[in-house]
C-alpha cells in the first residue's frame, strides 16, 4: 500500500522559508517520478512541482518558479520541497504524490500558512 507522510509545514511570515518533507513507503520510490500539489481553502488542487527519478530534472508551476525547489533522496525514500520568499497566496495544504503531475492524494498533507 502506498504511504506518503508529509511534514514540515507551519506558520511563517511573508518572505519566510520552510522545508517540506515527504516520507514514502509501500512502493518502489526509485522507480517513480514524484510531485507536490497544494490546495488552498475553497480552491481546487494545484500542481506545484515534479521531479524525475534521478532528481536531475524538475518542473515547476509558474507560481513556484524561482522560489521553490524540489529535491529527493532515493537512499532514504524522501521527497522535499524548499519554499522561499513565501507569500500569503502560498497558504495551502501541501501534498506529495507519486507520479508526474499526479493528483492522487494518499497522505494527510502538511499545512503552510503565510501570514504576518
H/E series: EEEEEEEEEE
Query: How many E-type strands?
Result: 10
Shape: globular
Major β-sheet strand ordering? 2-10-9-4-5-6
Q: Give a quick account of the main beta sheet: strands, pairing sense, barrel closure.
A: 6 strands, mixed
Q: What's the alpha carbon Rg, rounded to whole Å?
A: 13 Å
Structural class: mainly beta
- Percent of residues in helices comes to under 10%
> Would you tell me the overall average pLDDT?
97
Model description:
With 116 residues, this protein is mostly beta strands. The mean pLDDT is 97. A hairpin with a 4-residue loop joins β7 and β8 (78-83). The strands form two sheets. A six-stranded mixed sheet has the order 2-10-9-4-5-6, with no helix packed on it. A four-stranded antiparallel sheet has the order 1-3-8-7, with no helix packed on it. It is built from no helices and ten strands.
Summarize the structure.
The chain is 0% helix and 48% strand. The protein is mainly β.
Break the fold down into its secondary structure elements and pairings.
Elements: E1 3-7, E2 10-12, E3 18-25, E4 34-39, E5 45-51, E6 58-60, E7 68-73, E8 78-83, E9 92-98, E10 110-114
